[in-house]
Amino acid sequence: MSRRENAWLTAAVVGWIALNGAVLLLAPGDAPFDWPAQHEPPSGPGQVIAAQATLVELVLLAAIGYALTRGRPAPLIAERAPTLPSARRETGLVLAYGVLAQLGGLLIGRGLGWNPIGFHLAGTLVGATDPVGPAEALGWATYNVVVYALVPLLWFRRRYTAHQMCLRSADRRGDTILILAVLVVESLAQWVVLGHAFAGLAPGQLAVGVPLTFLLYLAGTVLPTVIFVQSILVPRYARLTGSTTATVVLGGLTYAALHVFEGWGRFGSPREATLTILFVLLIYTLPGAFKTWLTVRTGNAWVHAWAYHALAPHTMHDTGLIVRIFRL
C-alpha cells in the first residue's frame, strides 16, 4: 500500500474512532429522536454497537466482493473523469448544487406541510410518529429522482459517455455474480435484524406493497445515489485524490451528508443539531463507503443499487411503511 493510501486509511480510522467517541460523549443515554419502529429508544451506546456490527458485516461483504473480482482488470475510474482543473471545477459545482437541492427539499417539504424532502422518506428504517400521506411519499420520490438523478444525468451526458459515467458494465457476468452474492448475504442479515417488518402483512398487501415500495425507493433514493454520487462524483474524487481509500471515504461522507435532513432529525438546539449530524454520519457513512467501494471495484455504478440498496434493505424493510401510508 502506498504512503498516500496509508495516510488516508489512518485518517479514516482516526475519524471513525473520534466519531464514535463524540456520540458516546454527547449521548451517553437516550438521544432526542423519534424512532418508533425500533425495539429500543435511540441511544449513543446502542448506535455505536450497531455501527460496529455494520462494520463487521461490510468487511465480510467486501471480502466476498474482493474474492469474486480479484481476477478482473482494475477499472481505473479516475481516467474516466476529466482533467484535474475540470474535475475540480465540476466537483465543486456538483457539491454546491447538492447543498441547494438539500435546502430546496427542506423548504419545499416544510412549505407543503410535510417532513423535509431528504434522501429517505420520513419513517424509513426507523418509523415515524407523524403521519406520512401518499402525496408526501409521491412528492418525495418525484423531487429526488428529478433533482438528483434526471437533471444531473441530462447535464453530464451531453459531454460524457455512459462508460465515463460508470453506467455501463465491462463484465456483465462478473457483475451479476457479485450482485447476487452480496444480495444474498445482505438479505439474510437484514432478515435476521429486520424480518419483523413483514410480520402481519397479508399476501395481498405484499403483492401490491413490495413492487410499490421498490419503485418509490428506486426513484427516491436508489437512482439519486447511482447518478449523483456514484456516477458523477466518485470518478472525480478518484481523479482529484489519486487514492482508492480517499475515494471510498469521500463517497461515504457524501452519501451520509445527503441524509442530513432525515425526518427524525432535530435542529431545535445546538445539542440536537450536533447529535443529528453525528448520528447521520454514524449510520450512513459506512454503507455509503461500501457502495462506493463496489463502484470503484467494478467500474459499474449500478452494482451497488441491486446488491446493496434497492432490495435489501429498502424493499425488505420499508414495505410495511408503504403499506401503511397507502392504506393497502
UniProtKB/TrEMBL annotation:
<feature type="transmembrane region" description="Helical">
    <location>
        <begin position="240"/>
        <end position="261"/>
    </location>
</feature>
<feature type="transmembrane region" description="Helical">
    <location>
        <begin position="94"/>
        <end position="117"/>
    </location>
</feature>
<feature type="transmembrane region" description="Helical">
    <location>
        <begin position="47"/>
        <end position="68"/>
    </location>
</feature>
<keyword id="KW-1133">Transmembrane helix</keyword>
<feature type="transmembrane region" description="Helical">
    <location>
        <begin position="177"/>
        <end position="202"/>
    </location>
</feature>
<protein>
    <submittedName>
        <fullName>Uncharacterized protein</fullName>
    </submittedName>
</protein>
<feature type="transmembrane region" description="Helical">
    <location>
        <begin position="137"/>
        <end position="156"/>
    </location>
</feature>
<feature type="transmembrane region" description="Helical">
    <location>
        <begin position="273"/>
        <end position="290"/>
    </location>
</feature>
<keyword id="KW-0472">Membrane</keyword>
<feature type="transmembrane region" description="Helical">
    <location>
        <begin position="214"/>
        <end position="233"/>
    </location>
</feature>
<feature type="transmembrane region" description="Helical">
    <location>
        <begin position="7"/>
        <end position="27"/>
    </location>
</feature>
<keyword id="KW-0812">Transmembrane</keyword>
